[in-house]
Write a structure and sequence with these properties.
homodimer; DNA-binding; mainly alpha; elongated
DNA sequence: GGAGAATTACGAAGGTCTTCGTAGAAAGGG
DNA sequence: CCCTTTCTACGAAGACCTTCGTAATTCTCC
């Protein structure tokens, strides 16, 4: 009688859009989230409510009732989901070799010297910290 | 009368598995690909054939007939797909800020000093090249 | 040339995703 | 108290995904 749900690790397209809004808003009602959707991604109010209900079923958000209205909040943090996604991409597409991932990134993007400098500073900091 | 197909930019789970095999094999028959699948991902022969047919419909591979057998080859390169995926991840989850993506990466992974060094070398090379 | 093996073509079944409408409950102001 | 507005719950429709079986085709080689 165990909970045999194999949890979905990842968000679908629309779910990600909603989580992004929730991450920005912190707490939000269905109405808040619907209003915050980019014009190109507007959905009917009931669609928005459905997505949030599904997100709650899947454990990505929780809700508390205030009056007759639910207030939603993300349980999955953006940082955590960034990590999870990067890890997945690295595994599935870069032979689990983060350096290869960065290589592709710096090759593809027309990164400004400034951005490159930032990245370099990150690496240096990490190298210094590790030394300790 | 234009070709109104809105092409799917991205591979599904199973499609990615198959493309990965094709990228490794170069050219391959249904049988080859099926044999190359990881044990945990084995599929019936006809399932493998179906996936390859779908990949061809979607334009990710081409086939040529040799005798009675199709030989498949990727048209989408792994490099291209890596770029596309990274770009998508950066847009959707890192506010289009590649430096933030790298920051998360170096924070999450227990990168060895060696790996960090490799990455740093990549950045330095790019910085030097850009200077020219 | 016909039996047997391998291959391709197709469709069905079951699952998930996305979107929305309808129905009913809750709230609150006149 | 009841009308209107706002909200939740639910189910349906259509799309796509995944997997496979069956049927038809092709090849081989005795």
């Amino acid at each position: 009688m165990s909970d045999n749900k194999k949890k979905t690790q990842f968000l679908t397209e629309v779910e990600l859009e909603f989580m992004t809004r929730l991450w920005e808003l912190g707490q939000a009602t269905v109405r808040d989230v619907q209003d915050a959707l980019a014009p190109a991604k507007k959905l009917a109010y009931t669609s928005a409510a459905t997505i949030l209900r599904i997100l709650e079923q899947k454990g990505f958000v929780t809700s508390t009732k205030l009056g007759k209205t639910f207030i939603y909040q993300a349980t999955l943090s953006k940082d955590t989901y960034q990590s999870r996604s990067l890890k997945n991409l690295s595994e599935k597409l870069f032979d689990n070799t983060p350096a290869a991932l960065v290589a592709r990134l710096v090759d593809d993007y027309d990164l400004t010297e400034e951005t490159l400098g930032e990245i370099r500073a990150l690496i240096d900091k990490r190298l210094r910290d590790d030394k300790r």
